[in-house]
Structures are given as structure tokens and as C-alpha cells.
Design brief:
single chain, alpha+beta, Immunoglobulin-like, 5-stranded antiparallel beta sheet, 5 helices, about 15% helix, disordered C terminus
């Protein structure tokens, strides 16, 4: 009797499975250009509609051709191909009346786009401008730069439709950009686009630079200062001195991002200058006054001490470490802690304390990178040093949601490669030690 029941259940299950398999099928689609060339599937998605207007599935192609399975039989299906955010509805439909149907979906080919970028006079080309081609949905498709003639290479992208077009962003820096649209791209046509930006070829207004001196500054005489001008690549453009009014003038500058640095004569040497302050500005001809504030009074004696705590790592005297951190917090004293990137992240006692401190309103901790594994960087190539520092940055950011700008070299040793790598990774301070035969005089 039991065998009979099992046999009946098996027959019912098999019948249901067979019935389900009878009710679904698949469609194999191939995406081609008009000339029959297969397209790269990584750039294509396909919308599958059922019975004319009901979106049934959105398929990101992985192969071309690709099989779309699990489709109910007896239904009509239509398709819309999307490439580079350009939509192409396919006119032909298919009724799925067998387990597998094959369809070829053809869309128009690419068009070739080349850009010639000029200042607002329409004749002066812009050299080294960043040109970003964006899809209708603001997806970045191409990023390139102009040559000395203001030209880009030619790029072949999906041709546009009446209701979908591209945009082009021209940028001379983080805060200087111009958006040009629409860009209509015709199939199988190489088109040159002339883009005239709103920026002058030269800023004819005089740029006035002045200093905002702080109270009790030890050096206030204008003849002790000079102003240096640097471009966005930190290349020096020019310099000037302050006049009797405490101003320096710059003219005939290209539109762009600049750094104005105010330098003051050293108290130890008449020929040596020390940076007093700087101002980063975007110049496009709409303003002509730049003010530089003193960053830190380099001549004042603060009678203070900077405290640093090295070798912060998981499970290494964590109670002692957190107790020391708390002592500094109780006294409202700042403390820089050197975190070893490869040895942090799993000790909840230590990590949770540091996170809580960092997130508090009166946090006293500053996290510094103490490299990856406390091995002296001077034993490594520049490439290996760069890898160690980047790994440490990623570990600290993942654990504490901060990116360090202070670096404490393992065993306090470093070389020229270390300094260059730190600059390339946006570090602002190197905290090390020096050895002297006798303490410095006070």
C-alpha cells in the first residue's frame, strides 16, 4: 500500500513538472548593427515587453547572442534595446509558441564625434581642457583632453534619436566647467562639433592680491612679503611684490585654477622666504580681488607640546591604550595616534573606543598612518612604499571613516621616495624624529 501511495505521488509530481515545463519557453536574441555586425554585450540592456505594453523584464546582456528564459508560452513579446542610454524600440514582435524562438534585433550603428573647443572669441583654441561625453542619463562615457589646437580624438558612440542626445562637459578645473547640449550623433557619419565656451582667452582685468594680516603678527612691513602664483599642476607661473598699499598685481592670465602663495622673509636669512598663507581660486574673469589670510603665525611661540602615540594595533595592551587616550580626553589635550593599517579593525575594545571618541563633539584624537606592518619603508622600492601607504589608507578609512593626512614612518626612518609617495597620496605632514648630540637650546 505504501509503495502504491509513493508511486501515485511521484506520478502527480512528474505530471506537474511536465505541465510547468510545457507552459514556459525561451527566446534567443542577437543584437546587431544594420550591417549585421554583432555588438559588444557589455554596453547593452534589453527591455522585454509582454503583450504590447507591459514591461516584463529588464535584461543586462552578458553574451551576444543571449537566451532569455522563463517566458510564458502563448504570449506576444516585443523588445527595446538600450545602448549608451539611447533607446531603440524594435518594431517586430514574436509570439512564443514553442520552447525556443530565435530573433535578430537590429539597431543603427555608431556615429563618430570629434570636438573642437574654443574660448568665447570663437577662434582661440583651448589646450588641455578636459572633455567628458555624457549619456542622456549623465553616465560618463568618454573622458579625454584637448590638444594644442583645442581638438579631441574622434570617438564612435551609439547614434542618437529624436528624443535622446548626448551632453559634453568642458572643464578647466574642479570649479570651472561648461555643459554643452544637445549633441546629436548620426549613424555612420563622422561629425566635428565646434564648442565655444563662455570664457575669455585672457583675463584682461587686473587681479589684485592683498593680505589679511592677523593681530599681533610680528612682521607687518609690506617689503618683507612676496606673492607667488602657481597653476593647478603646482607649476610656478609668476611672482610679484607688495606695493605701498599692501597689494600685488597680476594680469594677462588664462582662465583656470590657481594658487596664490604669500611668502615672508625668514627671520634667520634675508634670502630665505617661508610660506605665510595661500589662497586657491578659480579665475574666469568675473572677479579680480584675492585675499590671503595667515594660516599659522610662524613667528609666535606657543609654548606648547605636540603628543604622539605610535603602534596602535588590535589586542596590543588595548586597555592601556584606551586608558591613555581617555586621560588625554579628560584633560582636553589633543593626541595624534599612529595606526598600523594591517593590524587594525577586529579588536572591538580598541576600535569602538576610537570610533566613539572620533564621533564625539569634543574629540581629541587625530589618526595618523603608521604604515601597513611597521616594517621600515626605507627597505622597499618606491612602488612598494606606495602600495603600503595606500593599503593603510584604505584600512583606516574602512575602520574609522577617515583618511589620514599625517604620516608616522615606522622606526622614524624615511627617504626621498617616502616623501614623494606621501605628496602623491595627499599627505600634508610627516611626523618623525631627529637625533642630536645635545638637546637644542631654548
Amino acid at each position: 500500500m505504501k509503495n502504491f501511495i509513493i508511486l501515485v505521488m511521484f506520478v502527480i509530481l512528474f505530471t506537474n513538472l511536465y505541465a510547468n515545463s510545457e507552459s514556459i519557453g525561451s527566446i534567443e536574441i542577437q543584437i546587431k548593427k544594420w550591417d549585421g555586425e554583432l555588438l559588444d554585450p557589455s554596453e547593452i540592456s534589453v527591455l522585454v515587453y509582454q503583450n504590447g505594453n507591459s514591461l516584463f523584464r529588464n535584461v543586462q546582456l552578458e553574451t551576444n547572442p543571449q537566451i532569455i528564459s522563463e517566458l510564458p508560452l502563448g504570449q506576444k513579446y516585443s523588445f527595446e534595446v538600450i545602448r549608451h542610454d539611447i533607446n531603440y524600440p524594435i518594431s517586430n514582435k514574436v509570439t512564443l509558441d514553442s520552447f525556443l524562438k530565435k530573433m535578430v534585433l537590429k539597431i543603427p550603428p555608431e556615429g563618430g564625434m570629434k570636438f573642437n573647443v574654443f574660448y568665447k572669441d570663437g577662434s582661440t583654441p583651448i589646450n588641455n581642457a578636459q572633455v567628458i561625453i555624457k549619456s542622456p542619463n549623465q553616465m560618463e562615457l568618454v573622458s579625454t583632453t584637448t590638444n594644442s589646437d583645442g581638438q579631441t580624438p574622434r570617438y564612435w558612440l551609439q547614434s542618437t534619436t529624436n528624443d535622446k542626445s548626448y551632453q559634453v562637459e568642458i572643464s578647466l578645473g574642479e570649479n570651472i566647467s561648461y555643459l554643452h547640449s544637445p549633441i546629436n550623433n548620426s549613424p555612420n557619419v563622422a561629425t566635428d562639433f565646434k564648442i565655444i565656451t563662455p570664457w575669455p582667452s585672457l583675463i584682461d582685468e587686473r587681479i589684485i592680491v592683498s593680505l589679511e594680516k592677523v593681530i599681533n603678527s610680528d612682521h607687518t612691513s609690506n617689503d618683507l612679503f612676496k606673492i607667488e602664483l602657481y597653476d593647478k599642476n603646482n607649476q610656478k607661473v609668476s611672482e610679484n611684490t607688495l606695493n605701498y598699499r599692501g597689494e600685488a598685481y597680476f594680469s594677462n592670465l588664462l582662465v583656470g585654477e590657481y594658487i596664490f602663495k604669500a611668502l615672508v622673509k625668514s627671520v634667520d636669512s634675508e634670502s630665505e622666504f617661508i610660506e605665510w598663507g595661500n589662497a586657491q581660486v578659480s579665475l574666469i574673469g568675473d572677479h579680480n580681488i584675492v585675499k590671503i589670510s595667515e594660516e599659522v603665525s610662524i613667528y609666535s611661540n606657543c609654548n606648547c607640546v605636540a603628543f604622539r602615540f605610535d603602534d596602535v594595533q588590535d589586542y596590543f595592551l588595548n586597555q592601556v591604550q584606551t586608558g591613555l587616550f581617555q586621560s588625554f580626553k579628560d584633560k582636553d589635550a589633543p593626541l595624534t595616534i599612529g595606526v598600523i593599517g594591517g593590524l587594525i579593525g577586529t579588536d572591538s575594545i580598541l576600535v569602538d573606543y576610537i570610533k566613539e571618541n572620533l564621533n564625539s563633539e569634543n574629540s581629541n584624537l587625530e589618526i595618523a598612518s603608521h604604515s601597513w606592518n611597521n616594517v621600515p619603508l626605507t627597505t622597499m622600492s618606491k612602488e612598494k612604499q606606495d602600495s603600503m601607504i595606500q593599503l593603510t589608507n584604505e584600512s583606516i578609512e574602512e575602520t574609522f571613516n577617515v583618511v589620514p593626512t599625517v604620516f608616522i614612518p615606522p622606526e622614524n626612518v624615511f627617504n626621498e621616495d617616502t616623501i614623494n609617495v606621501l605628496k602623491e597620496n595627499n599627505f600634508s605632514h610627516l611626523s618623525s624624529s631627529i637625533q642630536q648630540d645635545a638637546p637644542p637650546s631654548i
